[in-house]
Amino acid sequence: MKDYVITLMDEKKYVQARKELIELNAVDIAEILEEIDTNNALLLFRILPKDVAVDVFANLSNENQKYIINAITDKEIQYIMDELFFDDMIDILEEMPAIIVKKIIKNTKEEERRLINQFLKYPSNSAGSLMTIEYVGLQKEMTVKQSMEYIKKIGIDKETIYTCYVMAENRKLEGIVSLRKLVVSDDHKTVEEIMEKGVIYVNTYEDQEEIAHVFKKYDFIAVPVVDKEERLIGIITIDDIVDVIEQENTEDFHKMAAMEPSEEEYLETSVFTLARKRIFWLMALMISAIFTGSIIKRFEDVLQSVVALAVFMPMLMGTGGNAGAQSSTLIIRGMALDEIELKDVFKVIWKEFRVSSLVGIILSLVNFIRLYYFQSVDIKISMTVCTTLFIVVVLAKVVGGTLPIVARSLKLDPAIMASPMITTIVDAVSLFVYFSIATRFLGIA
């Protein structure tokens, strides 16, 4: 489709190109605009029907949104901002440079401008920054018939109508009622009679990761957001939480790879920025490797006495690091899914001890057969290597399973205790255990 649209554009068949595009979903149109050059993308965007253009704009990358805002007229900006859902507009404004934000806000209505400024004051990862004001609010005195007429009147401009929120006069949230319940209830019943009380809600300053857990736990499609007085301020819908989950997962992957998290796309991020976000952890891990070097120096006489020991150091350190990384990855993911809590630390230690013992025995036996029977390595050295391997695997898995929980208890992100950090710790432990056992097994003074 993209090539066909480009061909139509080259042949100046704009009407036909427009006809082909409007048959597609807004997301697919946005993907096509992302893949063609900016001049053609802008031209295509401007020939789209206005209602379609708004949906397409919401799905474009920040870079293309900036380009379009700079290129179109104030009247066109005003139309787009008026038609966008409020939370989508806030998301766009949060990513735009100040000069673009000023241009957008200049073309919004005074009441909307006040709300935008209020929303932009919320922390970037809070419920307040995610919520939308486009919800259906009902009064508990309203009848079912009045409620349905009200929804028909204002529902077209709301982000969701499937859950309606019941408020008292002071906007205090008192309950919720589903559209299904309204449809099947008697017209003369009041909203108060059919609403559900004991509503699950989140506070405006609650962290987005906690909100994602609420959605997952209760299978919500929307959740209300209240202030300190429990007055309804807005709602958060499932489409925003899907974006949050993707963002949080990406952030965890970055931390697990020992990088500072970034929300920018890889190809759009400058080399300097990428280097800056990687250098800190690489520097910290490099400096921490000094401990590994000091251990080798401390046991230098052991290495000089039995040079063959050096051959097995990479294998022991690598296996230990891999074993620890396996455990830490499982525990970090389990904690992210709320499957593992702080109180489960001893259960984790006991389970990882049993798993690592089984794995360590198998690896050590296989390694002993390889060294002693196939490579004819001295029996004492073979025993030293295999005993070390068993101990290292056990320690690595227990440490790898425990450190993420310790990090959470210290209010740190468990993801920082992932592969690079575990590997650095296990390397030092592996060498210390290795040389300590070699000193005793081989009788080196």
Automatic annotation (TrEMBL):
<dbReference type="GO" id="GO:0005886">
    <property type="term" value="C:plasma membrane"/>
</dbReference>
<dbReference type="Pfam" id="PF00571">
    <property type="entry name" value="CBS"/>
</dbReference>
<keyword id="KW-1003">Cell membrane</keyword>
<dbReference type="InterPro" id="IPR006668">
    <property type="entry name" value="Mg_transptr_MgtE_intracell_dom"/>
</dbReference>
<keyword id="KW-0813">Transport</keyword>
<keyword id="KW-0479">Metal-binding</keyword>
<dbReference type="Pfam" id="PF03448">
    <property type="entry name" value="MgtE_N"/>
</dbReference>
<keyword id="KW-0129">CBS domain</keyword>
<dbReference type="InterPro" id="IPR006667">
    <property type="entry name" value="SLC41_membr_dom"/>
</dbReference>
<comment type="function">
    <text>Acts as a magnesium transporter.</text>
</comment>
<comment type="similarity">
    <text>Belongs to the SLC41A transporter family.</text>
</comment>
<protein>
    <recommendedName>
        <fullName>Magnesium transporter MgtE</fullName>
    </recommendedName>
</protein>
<feature type="transmembrane region" description="Helical">
    <location>
        <begin position="302"/>
        <end position="325"/>
    </location>
</feature>
<feature type="transmembrane region" description="Helical">
    <location>
        <begin position="379"/>
        <end position="403"/>
    </location>
</feature>
<feature type="transmembrane region" description="Helical">
    <location>
        <begin position="415"/>
        <end position="437"/>
    </location>
</feature>
<keyword id="KW-0460">Magnesium</keyword>
<comment type="subunit">
    <text>Homodimer.</text>
</comment>
<dbReference type="InterPro" id="IPR038076">
    <property type="entry name" value="MgtE_N_sf"/>
</dbReference>
<keyword id="KW-0812">Transmembrane</keyword>
<feature type="transmembrane region" description="Helical">
    <location>
        <begin position="279"/>
        <end position="296"/>
    </location>
</feature>
<dbReference type="InterPro" id="IPR046342">
    <property type="entry name" value="CBS_dom_sf"/>
</dbReference>
<dbReference type="InterPro" id="IPR036739">
    <property type="entry name" value="SLC41_membr_dom_sf"/>
</dbReference>
<dbReference type="GO" id="GO:0015095">
    <property type="term" value="F:magnesium ion transmembrane transporter activity"/>
</dbReference>
<feature type="transmembrane region" description="Helical">
    <location>
        <begin position="353"/>
        <end position="373"/>
    </location>
</feature>
<keyword id="KW-1133">Transmembrane helix</keyword>
<feature type="domain" description="CBS">
    <location>
        <begin position="195"/>
        <end position="251"/>
    </location>
</feature>
<dbReference type="GO" id="GO:0046872">
    <property type="term" value="F:metal ion binding"/>
</dbReference>
<dbReference type="Pfam" id="PF01769">
    <property type="entry name" value="MgtE"/>
</dbReference>
<dbReference type="InterPro" id="IPR006669">
    <property type="entry name" value="MgtE_transporter"/>
</dbReference>
<dbReference type="InterPro" id="IPR000644">
    <property type="entry name" value="CBS_dom"/>
</dbReference>
<keyword id="KW-0472">Membrane</keyword>
